[in-house]
Amino acid sequence: MPSELGDEGRKAIKGNTLDFYLSTLDEVRSNTLAELKKRDDKWLLTEDKTWPWKPGPTNNYCKWFHVCEHESNHNGQIKYLKGRLPGGKEEK
User: Fold this and answer.
1) Which of 13, 17, 41, 60 is paired with 90 by a 20 to 30 Å CA distance?
2) Residue 53 in contact with residue 44, Cβ under 8 Å?
3) Region 12-21: what's the mean pLDDT?
4) Residue ranges per domain, the chain?
5) What are the residues facing 48 on neighbouring strands?
6) DSSP letters along 16-84, please?
């Protein structure tokens, strides 16, 4: 859903509690780590010629590096906002 939000997707992910977003991040991270444990270096370096990024094909390593950048950014945003809530503590 998040990849192709549209109005329905936006409604499903907006306006939830902080715990919803934190638990969702934790659940997705746990699932990602479990799936990556099943993969090897050959899989990471496999090119995906159908991937639409330019200038040409990319590999799974590049795609997952990009995903990790996004997760790190969103995690930081959530921690920043959480620390500014009444009674919230910024995690270090």
Assistant:
1) 13
2) no
3) 85
4) 36-92
5) 58
6) --HHHHHHHHHHHHHHHHHHHHT--HHHHT-EETT---TTS-EEHHHHHHHHHHHHHHHHHHHHHHHTT
Mean pLDDT of the chain: 84
Q: What pLDDT score was predicted for residue 39?
A: 95
Please name the residue that has the structure tokens 């503590």: 89
The reply to whether the predicted model has a pTM over 0.70 is no
Output the CA–CA distances (angstroms, integers) from residue 58 to 1, 49, 65, 68, in the order listed: 23, 7, 11, 16
Q: What is the DSSP letter of 85?
A: S
Task: Tell me the β-bridge partners of 47.
Answer: 59
The set of residues, in sequence order, having a beta carbon less than 8 Å from that of 54 and lying 6+ positions away, is none
Whether the upstream peptide bond of residue 55 has omega within 30° of 0, thus cis, is yes
